[in-house]
From TrEMBL:
<dbReference type="InterPro" id="IPR041780">
    <property type="entry name" value="MPP_PrpE-like"/>
</dbReference>
<keyword id="KW-0808">Transferase</keyword>
<dbReference type="Pfam" id="PF00149">
    <property type="entry name" value="Metallophos"/>
</dbReference>
<dbReference type="InterPro" id="IPR004843">
    <property type="entry name" value="Calcineurin-like_PHP"/>
</dbReference>
<dbReference type="Pfam" id="PF13671">
    <property type="entry name" value="AAA_33"/>
</dbReference>
<dbReference type="GO" id="GO:0005737">
    <property type="term" value="C:cytoplasm"/>
</dbReference>
<dbReference type="InterPro" id="IPR027417">
    <property type="entry name" value="P-loop_NTPase"/>
</dbReference>
<dbReference type="InterPro" id="IPR024028">
    <property type="entry name" value="PNKP_bac"/>
</dbReference>
<dbReference type="Pfam" id="PF16542">
    <property type="entry name" value="PNKP_ligase"/>
</dbReference>
<feature type="compositionally biased region" description="Basic and acidic residues">
    <location>
        <begin position="20"/>
        <end position="33"/>
    </location>
</feature>
<dbReference type="InterPro" id="IPR029052">
    <property type="entry name" value="Metallo-depent_PP-like"/>
</dbReference>
<dbReference type="InterPro" id="IPR050126">
    <property type="entry name" value="Ap4A_hydrolase"/>
</dbReference>
<keyword id="KW-0418">Kinase</keyword>
<feature type="domain" description="Calcineurin-like phosphoesterase">
    <location>
        <begin position="217"/>
        <end position="415"/>
    </location>
</feature>
<feature type="domain" description="Polynucleotide kinase-phosphatase ligase">
    <location>
        <begin position="504"/>
        <end position="900"/>
    </location>
</feature>
<dbReference type="GO" id="GO:0016301">
    <property type="term" value="F:kinase activity"/>
</dbReference>
<dbReference type="GO" id="GO:0016791">
    <property type="term" value="F:phosphatase activity"/>
</dbReference>
Length: 905
């Protein structure tokens, strides 16, 4: 039984008026021998039909949620303040239809509580159900006139209702009963008498296409078209064990790991053995080892087997001939095929709603819906109304505009290679035309294929991809990023982006960012440690260790915090990989960009040289082969700080140093001269000397992070140097490789791989050293001696001029005992480095007391949200999802950077 076929459901609750006893006529009651089941699809429009006083509102309140029931009386009250004001009925029903339409559009079961005894109001409701592709269901309450009159008399607002109104409703109800199914109601339940009505039990049926409780894993197989041998080869390669009958024919296939095959239809026609394909697929479905949706070729074959007139073309003739030969050996085979095809459902929703499988593709608005229109689109797709030069219909490119959350896997339109386009993929790779038979492993998103044994059927047109952009799909368009956005993440749930922040991010991304295909990740901001209570310190490791100890994290790694500029580095095995995979211009084996997505180097030669050298390090360390990838995405720090922050240094920091250098020597000389003349300026002189020392410390703090680079740096013999001279890259995490997100790999494993890169750097050629190591120490937050050792390590590091450290859970990705995400890192900056941030004199007791009042909650929340979005972007990238899906998370990180927060934190 198909999900959109008329299902006669006139229940056993129907009993004739003439068969009632006199007592039953007087009371409307009868002893119910058993409960009456009223089955209702879980997404449908339920129309209650009955005379006034028949108990529709009571029935609705008993069996449905209050929010599911839309009452005409309630809507009448909304527009007139009087639920019985019949003059307001027109406006009331306009309101009712509007609310019903909104609920159905949102996929909510909806119940209309009105008399609905006339055909015209029902006609409008059926049309509304069809508009939203849901099934209309009628539940008729056929209650005796006397019972209805007694109920109305008991209601103060209905006591004066004339008896003739009830009689008119009863007559209209009688005339309606025979025609409800012809009006379009797919299910009709008639409950006669109060006993039947009171004993009724509403049971919500899962739609035939709703299999979201099945989570797989799945192997989704593209169009087979009678290529039985290729199907056997593909199933074998996927790991299925074939079961054969006495004649050696495959009749079932099971996977030892419990995987389920899913067939997208077009099992038959054109190929050499359609009966063999049907026998195998039917056996797998019957055994519970497979699911199958119909293709347009099955639909046509089913109509033929059912005795309908069809045009025998497009390979159907071959299938009919093959079935006739099969009938000589198995006379019942044709009937089994007819029943099998008749029971196929247009599409399936699987894996919690993350996966939709159909034959010709399906826009999101049709997912889970049940109507002839949905079935037609699932079978045939949509066309523009035009034909191409081969006389074939031009398909409407629905996948180009698809923005749904569920991945849609389909076939129908042959293409040379299965590629993702906006979270959809066509698996019809033309096996019958000499191409290949393709399957998609889900949720791995891995494609597996076998070549066709030969060209079994000459195609009318060449196999070319109809998908604009091929595998790339489309990047974000304006509608994807404007207004308030909500991004669903698998690590932190829904993350909201304010409209004004989205506008600021759009400005940056559209005008200054690198080419979209390279912008696959942006790093999150870092949470600061809690304010220290230690004398003379604003930040101290004790608070970072205590924070993780409170979250139940025992093992943490303290990593040296390099003072430079955050850089995301996409390094590819060669320029060809960079061009094909990420659209990087010829000759550049990757990209280097800032934490706001801007190119790091204006000079392409510098970027190319850096990436080539890094690529040689990756090759030398054996990571291309070890990680089975042709590219890596790294999180790193590029030094010196002056490489990217020259303007900031010149205008903000150097100006302060220059001013202090110009003012304090003269001021101190004047005060010292005054003291020599016997004036009492000792206190003032001491205070100014301290200020001069603080200013000098400030200047030294930022100078140690600045040095010349490139040819300007010169070489030891005074000649011009290399473009990479003075540049230091300190990678500290490998984020992703082909098909894998590595962001949750423990940090000790990450840093071990980084150490191999650093070790290779000395032997790859070039002048100087490019890669800088990241020093670290592992600390047990529950061990006082270990914590003390970590604190000493930080003190020594910062005393030697280091910026500070970042404390991270050793396991990288951690959730607390409450299930909440733990901060991925807490920065603890050194006492002298903080002079750059808070000013030369921040260590003075009065200033520290003021600065200790820091509001860290917003910054910490921002860090977690951006971290979750970054993980989401990497997961989507690794999963092969379309570019717009990756950009959705990347764009949100950039937008959150516009949130107002103290920039010093």
């Amino acid at each position: 039984m198909t999900e959109d076929r008329t299902t006669e459901s006139r229940t056993a609750a129907e009993s004739t008026t003439e068969g009632r006893t006199a007592e039953e006529r007087a009371t409307g009651e009868r002893t119910a021998e058993q409960r009456v089941t009223v089955d209702v699809p879980d997404l449908s429009l339920v129309v209650l039909v009955g005379a006034t006083g028949s108990g529709k509102s009571t029935f609705a309140a008993r069996h449905f949620k209050p929010t599911e029931v839309i009452s005409s009386d309630f809507c009448r009250g909304l527009v007139s303040d009087d639920e019985n004001d019949q003059s307001a009925s027109k406006d009331a029903f306009e309101v009712l239809h509007y609310i019903v339409g909104k609920r159905l559009a949102a996929g909510r079961l909806t119940v209309v509580d009105a008399t609905n005894v006339q055909s015209e109001p029902r006609k409008e409701l059926v049309a509304l159900a069809r508009e939203h592709d849901v099934l209309p269901v009628a539940i008729v309450l056929d209650i005796l006139e006397d019972v209805c009159a007694a109920r109305n008399a008991a209601r103060p607002d209905r006591a004066a209702l004339p008896r003739r109104v009830i009689q008119r409703h009863q007559r209209e109800l009688r005339r309606s009963l025979r025609h409800l199914e012809r009006e379009g109601f797919r299910k009709v339940h008639v409950l006669r008498g109060t006993a039947r009505t009171d004993s009724a039990e509403v049971v919500r049926e899962r739609r035939f296409n709703d299999l979201r409780h099945l989570t797989g894993p799945f192997d989704i197989v593209g169009d087979i078209h009678g290529c039985r041998s290729e199907l056997e080869s593909l199933l074998t390669r996927l790991g299925y064990d074939l079961v054969r009958d006495g004649a050696g024919r495959p009749v079932d296939a099971a996977h030892p790991e419990g995987r389920t095959a899913v067939f997208v239809g077009d099992l038959v026609d054109r190929g050499p053995d359609s009966p063999g394909v049907l026998r195998l697929v039917m056996g797998m479905v019957a055994a519970g080892h497979a699911l199958c949706v119909p293709g347009n070729h099955e639909n046509k074959l089913g109509r033929f087997l059912g005795g309908r007139q069809v045009k025998v073309a497009h390979g159907l003739a071959e299938t009919i001939e093959q079935l006739e030969r099969e009938a000589e050996q198995d006379p019942e085979f044709r009937e089994r095929v007819r029943e099998f095809i008749g029971g196929l459902v247009s599409h399936y929703i699987l894996d919690g709603g993350a996966l939709v499988v159909c034959h010709a593709g399906l826009p999101e608005k049709y997912h889970g819906r049940t109507s002839g229109r949905v079935r037609s689109h699932a079978l045939y797709g949509d066309t523009t109304g035009e034909t191409d030069e081969f006389g074939l219909p031009v398909r409407y490119p629905w996948a180009e505009d698809y923005r749904g959350r569920a991945a849609v896997v389909y076939g129908h339109t042959p293409t040379p290679t299965a590629t993702w386009l906006n979270n959809t993929i066509c698996l019809d790779t033309g096996a019958v035309f000499g191409g290949k038979l393709t399957a998609l492993r889900w949720p791995e998103r891995e494609l597996v294929d076998v070549p066709a044994e030969r060209v079994w059927y000459e195609p009318l047109r060449p196999l070319v991809s109809e998908a604009p952009g091929g595998a790339d799909g489309r990047p974000l368009d304006l509608a994807d990023v404007t207004g308030r956005r909500v991004v669903e993440t698998r690590h932190l749930g829904r993350v909201a982006v304010k409209e004004e922040n989205a506008a600021a991010a759009l400005e940056v991304m559209s005008r200054f960012a690198v080419e979209p295909r390279r912008l696959v990740y942006l790093p999150p901001t870092m949470a600061p440690c809690a304010t220290s209570k230690e004398e003379g310190y604003l930040e101290h490791p004790a608070e970072a260790f205590a924070a993780y100890r409170a979250d139940g994290v025992r093992q943490v790694v303290c990593e040296e915090k390099h003072m430079g500029s955050r850089a995301v580095v996409l390094v590819c095995r060669d320029a060809e990989v960079a061009r094909e995979r990420f659209g990087v211009p010829d000759g550049v084996p990757g990209a280097v960009y800032t934490r706001t997505g801007r190119p790091f180097f204006d000079d392409t030669e510098v970027a190319t040289r850096l990436l080539e050298r890094l690529g040689r390090c990756v090759a030398g360390a054996g990571l291309w082969e070890e990680l089975t990838t042709d590219w890596l995405l790294l999180d790193a720090e590029l030094m010196p700080w002056s490489l990217k922050a020259q303007g900031l240094l010149r205008n903000q920091y150097a100006a302060v140093g220059a001013a202090s250098g110009a003012v304090f020597p003269g001021a101190l000389a004047a005060l010292e001269s005054a003291a020599a003349r016997g004036l009492d300026v000792a206190e003032l002189l001491g205070r100014q000397r301290e200020r001069a020392e603080d200013a000098e410390a400030f200047t030294e703090a930022y100078r140690r992070y600045c040095w010349p680079v490139g040819p300007a740096a010169g070489s030891a013999d005074g000649t011009d140097g290399d473009v990479l001279d003075g540049i230091r890259l300190a990678p500290f995490q490998i984020l992703a490789a082909e098909g894998r997100s590595l962001a949750t790999v423990p940090h000790d494993e990450q840093l071990a791989m980084i150490d191999r890169l650093v070790a290779e750097d000395a032997g790859v050629g070039g002048s100087g050293v490019l890669l800088a190591p990241t020093r670290r120490i592992v600390v047990d937050t529950g061990d006082e001696s270990s914590v003390a050792g970590g604190t000493r390590w930080w003190l020594d590091l910062t005393a030697a001029g280091g910026e500070g450290m970042v404390v991270k859970p050793l396991q990288a990705y951690v959730r607390g005992e409450d299930g909440k995400l733990v901060q991925p890192g807490i920065k603890c900056r050194g006492r002298e480095y903080l002079r750059i941030i808070y000013g030369p004199e921040y260590t003075r007791p009065e200033n520290l007391a003021r600065l200790r009042i820091r509001h860290l909650g917003h910054k910490r929340s921002l860090a977690l949200r951006e971290y979750a979005l970054g993980l989401e972007a990497l997961d989507r990238l690794a999963g092969g999802e379309p570019l717009w899906r990756v950009h959705e998370a990347v764009f949100a990180v950039l937008a959150l950077e516009s949130e107002p927060v103290d920039p010093r934190l």
